[in-house]
Design brief:
Elements: H1 2-12, E1 29-32, E2 49-50, H2 52-69, E3 110-111, E4 114-116, E5 120-122, H3 133-147, E6 183-188, E7 192-197, E8 203-208, E9 223-229, E10 232-238, E11 254-263, E12 266-274, E13 283-291, H4 307-322
Parallel strand pairs: 8-9
Antiparallel strand pairs: 1-6, 1-13, 2-4, 3-4, 5-13, 6-7, 7-8, 9-10, 10-11, 11-12, 12-13
Length: 328
Amino acid sequence: LAALAATSLAAQTKPAAARTSDGKPDLQGIWTNATITPLERPQNVKELVLSEEAAARMEKAVIDRRDRLNEPSDPNRTAPPQGGDGSTGAAGNVGGYNNFWLDPGDRVAVVVGQRRSSLIIDPPDGRLPALTAEARARQAARAKTAMGRGQYDHPEYRPLAERCLLSFGPTTPLVPNYFYNNNLQIVQTPDHVMILMEMVHDARIVRIGGKHVPKHIRPWMGDSIGHWEGDTLVVDTTNFPPQQNFRGSSENLHVVERFRRADANTINYRFTVDDPTTFTAPFTGEIPFRAMNELIYEYACHEGNYALANVLSGARNEEKRLGTKQEK
């Protein structure tokens, strides 16, 4: 009986997280933040915490859909209409990635034992705060530029992700992209912490201690400085470049992140986003990072990729056909 009791206790006890040589919690390793829990809570869901049954239904629905989409394609299916059928999907549902290439995750996010309906925990409704009038005007201007011909006049007018400069998803804060490559690696020293995203191999360097660089210096992913509050690593990031935004944010974006080891296989990650020129209030979210027994792979974004050259040459050909003036 004593042996059985000891075995049972050992099975219930999670191993303690390791510490570095300087006594800090060891955050190093390869982690995933993939989850089916959305950033914002669905309008028809009122509570932050899901029941076990509700979470199981969500996960089963995702797995059933994945299995259905992974079934072999019918080789005798008809071709889509020229130019696409207008439905949701790449090029009007003509091309793009099929489900084989996607890996958005299949689990509900679990934080402190709670199955979450949204990553946002504050505001209490789990929704993004309303945009300011300034942000709405800025958003309309961006949309007008994106829909106009100007975006094809120069390679630097194309989106950052298309040019493989930044991830196809957020890097600060570390919110999942719900697409694929939701994996990251953390390397830690007493003076620095490096966060490498598998998506487009984005690497963010966090300086432990010190001060932010002057306001006119605005590196990709912002300027991150960190400090320890007990066993929690707190990272403060400002100085974002104007070309990079999170949910329509401005250069005034300020992100505070907290990394805390929950156990040997989990980091509880909390972030707070504040941009008074974009959102009418700050908002906070939580995401579990789960340890992976896998490797981070190189993301060769432009290898064999003719998309950018084809986009621009197509625009030049259209200008020639229409007789419009080409930008020099």
